[in-house]
Amino acid sequence: MKRRSGSTLSVRPFVNSVLETPRWALSFHRRHVLAITALGLVAASERFFSRLFEDLPRLPLEALTMASRLALVAYVIHLALRKDPAVAFGRGEGSVPKRHPTTARAFLPYLAGQGVLLCAAMFVFDFLPEQVFARYVPAAHHPLYFGCLLALKNVTVIPFTLIWATGMARRQLLIAEPVLATPAAPARA
């Protein structure tokens, strides 16, 4: 495969670049598995019991689920973007990421690769269990099957996807060029 400039396009560095974020997300998930699982259990128990008992109050339980997911996002952003010295995002240290057109153009193929991986993950973890495997479960057991499935996904797949999305932002911040903040010019009297 040739580029316009005549240089050869290498697939291996691109694939490694695309796989870097899911690898980081998996590593992050492993390092913080207790806190992530605890936050996921709130949503998992709500999803499980709401499938088994349809007379439960929906609005307060949905609010609790949303609060636990927001807490998870805040936790991941805090650790992955604010506490990571390689990123130093929002720390007031005088450096902010600068967006160059070349950085944005380089990010688009990476983002397309992430989209392909996320679509594949959605197929495996969403479509197959809910549309294909569910056909083999007797109708009388559907509430239990979907309750267990949603509980499992709320502890594993959903937190991992949130971490993965944060990892994409983290990668963009890591490859952006730091620009030293210029001090404000003194006011002239």
List the helices and strands and how they pair.
Layout: H1 11-31, H2 33-52, H3 58-82, E1 95-98, H4 101-132, H5 142-155, H6 157-175, E2 177-180
Antiparallel strand pairs: 1-2
Structural description of this entry:
This protein is mainly alpha-helical. It has one domain (17-177). The protein contains 6 helices and 2 strands, in the order αααβαααβ. The protein has helices spanning 11-31, 33-52, 58-82, 101-132, 142-155, 157-175; strands spanning 95-98, 177-180. It has a two-stranded antiparallel sheet with strand order 1-2. α1 (11-31) crosses α6 (157-175) and α4 packs antiparallel against α6. The protein is globular. The N and C termini lie far apart (63 Å). The model has no long low-confidence stretch (mean pLDDT 83).
Assembly type of the chains comes to single chain
Helix content: 55-70%
Major beta-sheet overview: 2 strands, antiparallel
Order of secondary-structure elements: HHHEHHHE
Query: Spatial order of the strands in the main sheet?
Result: 1-2
Q: Spans with pLDDT under 50 lasting ≥5 residues? A: none
Mean model confidence by pLDDT: 83
Shape: globular
The tally of structural domains comes to 1
> What is the CA–CA distance across the termini?
63 Å
* Strand fraction: under 5%
Strand segment tally: 2
Count of alpha/pi helices: 6
What structural category do the secondary elements indicate? mainly alpha
Radius of gyration: 22 Å
Keywords: Membrane, Transmembrane, Transmembrane helix
Transmembrane segments: 107-124, 144-165
